[in-house]
Description:
The protein is of the alpha/beta class and 242 residues long. It is built from seven helices and ten strands. Strands 1-10-9-6-2-3-5 form a seven-stranded parallel β-sheet, with helices on one face. Strands 4-8-7 form a three-stranded antiparallel β-sheet, with helices on one face. Helix 2 links the parallel strand 2 and strand 3. The radius of gyration is 17 Å and the shape is globular.
Amino acid sequence: MKIMYTDTYANMSRRAANIISAQIILHPKTVLGLPTGTTPIGAYRQLIEWYKKGDLDFSQVTTFNLDEYLGLDGSHPQSYRYFMDNQLFDHVNIRKGNTHVPDGTAADPEAECELYEQAIKEAGGIDLQVLGIGNNGHIGFNEPGTAYEKTTNVTELTESTIEANSRLFASKEEVPTKALTMGMKTIMHARRILLLVSGQHKLDILNAALHGPITPEVPASLLQLHPDLTVIVSTEDIPADF
Ligand code: PGA
């Protein structure tokens, strides 16, 4: 495990973008696993900037996002498909058909999860999985107490996640209570993992995840067992004017 501490959100974001862009440059047909959330936005902006300068080519890149709210269509502003299109995909030359986000409106969500898992396998598996961590130690929507053996699945969000994510919805009642998420098993199968953490309020849970017991109560603690884990931490919160 490699842990890098940075003093600013901007520095964390640039280092993260460096690792992602190196992966793309060395392996143009790379398969990336990507997160939503506020933490990776700076890294995505940096990647867009380098693409616009002509330093990055996404034309052969394939992506799989970690999760999606059950019931939200990709045109819903809080859906993760919408987030990814807006924060990254619409600004680079990635082929939309090569970007995957679980379909939150699938008629049969369980079958959608199986198809998603199958699509990851058919793409050759994930080369570099980028992650954030929730305040409760969740990864994707793998909430505390979730079995580590799960692959992509339909899950219930905990009260603390609904509370944390309600800041982005008009009211707490509008936050979906279920989601489709890659399971911890899916995530652990990635060849490399890059965990991004920003802000003082995440340091205690990060410490528990990296140095505490490996337990489903802190889903991210399983990452200790991954053979190629890099963690980049910013002790600074994301600036309000970012
Ligand atoms: P955040 O979310 O980046 O908005 O803090 C991380 C998460 O909940 O996984």
